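Entry for the shared binder. Reason: the reviewer on the internal report wants the predicted structure included alongside the sequence.
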Amino acid sequence: MEFIQQNLMWVGLAAVSGGMLIWQTASGRGRNNISVNEATLLINRQDAVVVDVRETAEWSSGHIPNARHISLGHLSKHLSEIEKFKEKPVIVVCASGNRSGSACNVLQKAGFQQVFNLAGGIHAWSDAGLPMTKK
């Protein structure tokens, strides 16, 4: 008990970080994260579909070639555009991997079988020196 009183700040920090990990796991975020290397394998070997959920201005600044653009705010309304890919692997991309985690949940609830979140988002893709386009 004396240790806890003397190290209250550290105990609090440990409790908060543990709580964040539990929340992330319970909410489904952090699940099905894949690396850039795993994503390229899925794209090349299994013809995975890439869905970019960033805003239009972000998309216009550069995106993964052949990716489909549906911003997160419009995803639920535009599921019909990607409905035919329900059986294929779908890789969801945003700037850093946060919004795409939410998009993964939307797609899974809509019945998409293989949904993956690109860990690190478009920044990780770009940092790996992989191709991007503005077309």
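Summary line for the report: Residues 1-30 form one domain.
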